[in-house]
Amino acid sequence: MRILLTAFEPYGDWSDNSSWLALVELLRNWPNHVELVTRRYPVDLATVRSRLNSDLQTDFDAVLHLGQAPGSPIIKLEAMALNVAGCLEQAGVELPYIVDSAPMAFRSRMPLATWNHTLAAAGIPSQISYHAGTYLCNAIMYLSHYYFYTRDLNTPVGLCICH
């Protein structure tokens, strides 16, 4: 099995990004029989779009993205990626699509309920979230789904948001 695992670099006032810290921690216990390709992306949609498209052109059995939600007390396992980019707080402003004339949303085929149960059993607070907002975390999940959708591939894509 070959998996792409991504995270983000620090941004804004944060000297670290919890997504990258989580990726590093996951590597400590990763099974040897699973080939893992990791990427650390900048917090910039245009650059992420280009680099992700290039990375996805190699053959992966699954793609898992890690993101950061400052202030969130739990890990969020994202079920949906929306074709919306921007800030919902911009009252009266129509939000642009991530991809014009594309499906409005994609649903993750990852075993989110199983992951949620496993995290809870380990004492790690988590929940299944039904959309990742409209920022970069959502965009990377949406773009990954869209890439496989346009190639008629059923590669599972997931997104976990760290606190």
Give the end-to-end Cα distance, rounded to a whole number of Å.
28 Å
Described by strand count, sense and barrel closure, the largest sheet is: 6 strands, mixed
Poorly predicted runs of 5 or more residues: none
Q: Could you give the order of strands across the largest sheet?
A: 2-1-3-8-4-7
Provide mean pLDDT, rounded: 91
CATH superfamily annotation: Peptidase C15, pyroglutamyl peptidase I-like
Radius of gyration equals 15 Å
List how many beta strands DSSP finds: 8
- Percentage of residues in strands: 25-35%
Here the CATH topology equals Aminopeptidase
Order of helices and strands: EHEHEEEEHEHE
CATH architecture field? 3-Layer(aba) Sandwich
The coarse silhouette is globular
Share of helical residues: 25-40%
CATH class: Alpha Beta
Helices and strands in order:
Elements: E1 2-8, H1 18-28, E2 35-41, H2 45-56, E3 62-68, E4 75-78, E5 80-82, E6 105-107, H3 112-121, E7 126-129, H4 136-150, E8 157-162
Summary tags:
163 residues, alpha/beta, Aminopeptidase, two-stranded antiparallel sheet, 4 helices, 8 strands, 25% strand, globular
Task: Describe the protein's architecture and organization.
29% of the residues lie in helices and 25% in strands. With 163 residues, the chain is α/β, with parallel strands linked by helices. The chain has a single domain (2-162), classed as Aminopeptidase, CATH 3.40.630. The longest helix has 15 residues, at 136-150.
